[in-house]
Every structure is written in C-alpha cells, then in structure tokens.
C-alpha cells in the first residue's frame, strides 16, 4: 500500500512539472495581446523650421520660370499671370528673331541681285554702308575727301553699285526693318528679366505670408511610455495626437 501511494505522488509531481512550460507560454501570449491593445501610434513632432517654406527656393523658382515661386508658396492665383506673360514674351522673342532673320536674308539677296554685292564674310557695318552710298567709288571718294583712308574699302572684295537710288532706298528699307527688329528684341529681353524680378518679389511676399500663418497648421506630438501594473503585465504605450 505504501508503495502504491508513493508511486501516485511521484506521477502527480511529474504531470504538474510538465504543465508549467505550457502555462508560461499562455501567459506570454496574454501579455503580448494586452500590450498590443494598449499601443497607439503618433508621428514625430514637426518643428516650425520643417514646416516653413524657403524664400531662397521661391526666388530660384521664379527666376527659372516666373510663377513657379508662387506655386511653391501655395498661391498660384497670381503666379499664373507671370507664367502667361512669360509665354507671351517668349513667343514675341522667337517671332521677332525669325522676322529679323528673314529680313536680313532678303536684303542680302537683294543686294547681291541688284548691286553685285558679295555677301560672304562681310561685317554688319558694310551692309549699313551700302544703304547710304550708290557705289563703292562714291563711298571711297567721300572717305578720301575726309582723309579717312583707313576706312576705304578694297574694290575687289567690297565692290557694289546700285543701278538707281530707288533700288538703294528699297534695300535700305529692308535693312532698317531687320536692324530695328533686332534692336527691339532687347526690350523683350528686358521685359523677361523684369517679369522674373517682379515674380520673385511676389513669391517672397507669399512665402512670408505662408510662414506667418504656420500657427494655424496641424501640429503633431508623440510620446512613448511603459506602463507597469502590479496585477497586470507591462505594456508599451505610444500616444498619437494632433492639434490645430
């Protein structure tokens, strides 16, 4: 009988010992589940410097393409007019260059056909000169009278002779049209520069206004903590909060 009782006690002890790891695993699972239920999420806090826009970038964008600085500042309602103006100025610039170039080709071809001018390698001053004198001979005689011998042209390379003053005046009109258009292009370039400067100033103003109103933007806060309770397992808490 004693042997039977001793055997029963030994068997009970072994079974109890085998159940302990299982209970530990279940307890661990409960702790993990309880911790997950107590976790909330939140992003890192954003500082004013992270939210503010850069005036330097606004200026750079406006100088590259007027209106883009305003777009960067978040207010393209006024910036679009600078972009439209830039498109119109570029269209004018290209159109004027094409027109001036065509007129230049026309007056050079006219001079070749009507005054026997060889246009190869000739400087712009030569084309202006032949619009004022009917022939190379009359031009050289004028320079000789003025004793400006260094300004006289070589008769072999710079020969020209208009058949009439009317032809010369026709040539001069084409030459003047081309030169005037080239000169006017400078005003278009100046308008492009002014458009960029005004756009940059406007973009800086809008960025300053945007940065000034940052207090109305959403602010984010995060906190992380471990909660220890006597009767419950420890839990990890991450608080995710926003405020206006």
Short note summarizing the structure:
By secondary structure, the chain is mainly alpha-helical.
Explain the layout of strands and helices.
Layout: H1 2-37, H2 48-51, H3 55-64, H4 68-72, H5 76-115, H6 124-129, H7 136-145, H8 165-212, E1 219-227, E2 235-243
Antiparallel strand pairs: 1-2
- Largest pleated sheet: 2 strands, antiparallel
Mean pLDDT: 80
SSE order = HHHHHHHHEE
Report how far apart the termini are.
Answer: 81 Å
Q: Please give the share of residues in helix.
A: 55-70%
The shape, in one word, is: rod-shaped
Strand content: 5-15%
The total beta strand count reads 2
Strand order of the largest sheet: 1-2
Uncertain runs: 2-6, 8-23, 39-43
Structural class: mainly alpha
Give an account of the 3D structure.
- By secondary structure, the chain is mainly alpha-helical.
- It is 65% helix and 7% strand.
- It has a two-stranded antiparallel sheet.
- A hairpin with a 7-residue loop joins strand 1 and strand 2.
How would you describe this structure in keywords?
rod-shaped, two-stranded antiparallel sheet, mainly alpha, disordered N terminus, 8 helices, 244 residues
